[in-house]
Amino acid sequence: MNFCSDNVTGGAPEILAHLAAVNDEPVMPYGADPVTQRVEARLAALFERAPNAIASFPVATGTAANALILSCLAPPHGAVFCHRDAHINVDECGAPELMTGGAKLIPLEGEAAKLTPQTVADALAQGWAGVVHHVQPACLSITQATEAGAVYTPDEVAALAAVAHAHGLTLHMDGARFANALAAVGCTPAEMTWKAGVDALSFGATKNGALAAEAAVFFDPARAADFAFRRKRAGHLFSKMRFLSAQLEGYLADDLWLRNARAANAMAARLAEGLGRTPGVTLAAPVAANEVFAHIPKAAAEALRGEGFQFYPWTALGEDCHRFVTAWNTKAEHVDRLLETARRTKAA
Question: Which residues contact 1 (CB under 8 A, 6 or more apart)?
């Protein structure tokens, strides 16, 4: 009954079975294996790109995907604009700055951890470009779904891309919960990314059923010209790369990734609907994907923890606010027991 994060889960059985299957035969190391080659082809097809019009690279963590992509998109004297609450700004221990060789993150404000075209345009209008004393605008990074559980529509992504590209910036999407956002919006992967102007994507799988697997995806291979060397230097070129790739292959097979995301989103909707009907509890934000933020009285929060439920306080949205994250294997009975406990405590 751990609702702290979708990182608390184990691996999806289908992915574990696929790992066991690729374990049987020896194959060449460092990505020169058929599993990795199949994943590259699968990602190209998934995003409706010709094989020579996309470049993808398995890595083990979202931090590696984000930081290594940004190292290709921003020079050491560059600026990466992002939301104040973006994972790259708050939760990656300076990895983007390290991997870029010193590029500066410029945090911006926005409701529900979303950026708007006007916010970005206003920031870029402050006279960065061409001034030798300032870092130079290089990249805009957005998170899908955001750190506050919101999602961008393809039109919203396109509007941000238009501003970024007009000022010579690339657009990076941190897609740690890309599948959840895609399931919530109901569009295609291509419509959410390159068709809307995204230049590079951190394609997440770990939070949605994989053990440790992400992919750095570039929609212009020229931008990834030296990514392979950066990945090696950063320690993310696995000798037995097939075990990262096998997770991604199992993840994408038979639409497991979207089925898992829909299951997680459905449990979040179930939880949000129930909390919204619980006296004394109010939702802090609309629920779009698989994160629920709710204002819960102290006694109810303590009762929930006493019953064995785990979840994080989220004081950025208020002293009594808490975050609940559902996952691909969240059980409906655990959601219902949480709701019953909250209602029973309030009634008492």
Answer: 307, 308, 309, 310, 334, 337, 338
Residues 274 and 225 in one domain: no
Domain-embedded: residue 49: yes
Q: Does one domain contain both 81 and 224?
A: yes
Q: How many residues does the chain have?
A: 348
The answer to whether 172 touches 141, Cβ cutoff 8 Å, is yes
Cβ-contact 69, 279 below 8 angstroms: no
Residue with tokens 């992915």: 15
In the DSSP assignment, the letter for residue 135 is: P
Distance CA(328)–CA(6), nearest Å, equals: 8
**Number of Cβ within a 10 Å radius of residue 212:** 14
Report the amino acid identity of residue 95. Answer: A
Give the H/E segment covering residue 258. Answer: helix 256-276
Are the CB atoms for 143 and 86 separated by under 8 Å?
yes
3-state secondary structure of 105: strand
Q: What is the pLDDT of residues 214-265, one digit of tens each?
A: 999 999 999 999 999 999 999 999 999 999 999 999 999 999 999 999 999 9
Q: Which domain holds residue 294?
A: 257-347
Report the alpha-carbon distance of residue 57 to residue 42 in Å, rounded: 12
* 94-143 pLDDT, tens digit each: 999 999 999 999 999 999 999 999 999 999 999 899 999 999 999 999 99
For 47-58, give one letter per residue: b (16+ CB within 10 A) or e: bebeeeebbbbb
| Omega before 145 within 30 of 0, i.e. cis | yes
Give the strands of the sheet with 200-204, arranged side by side.
55-59, 214-218, 200-204, 170-175, 136-143, 78-83, 104-108
The single residue listed with the structure tokens 């999407």 is 173
Q: What is the pLDDT of residues 278-295, one digit of tens each?
A: 999 999 989 999 999 999
